[in-house]
Amino acid sequence: MTDSSLVRDIIVRDDGAVRTIRMNRPEKKNALTQPMYAEMTRALHEAAANAAIRCIILAGGQNAFCAGSDIGDFQKRAEGGLEPVTVDFLRALVRNEKPLVAAVGGTAVGIGTTMLLHCDHVVAAAGATFATPFLKLGLIPEAASSLLAPQRMGHARAFSLLVMGRPLSAADAREAGIVNTVVDAAEVDETARKAALEIAALPPNAVILARRLMRSETESVAERIETEVEHFKERLKSDEARAAFAAFFARKK
Question: pTM for the full model?
Answer without folding.
Answer: 0.94
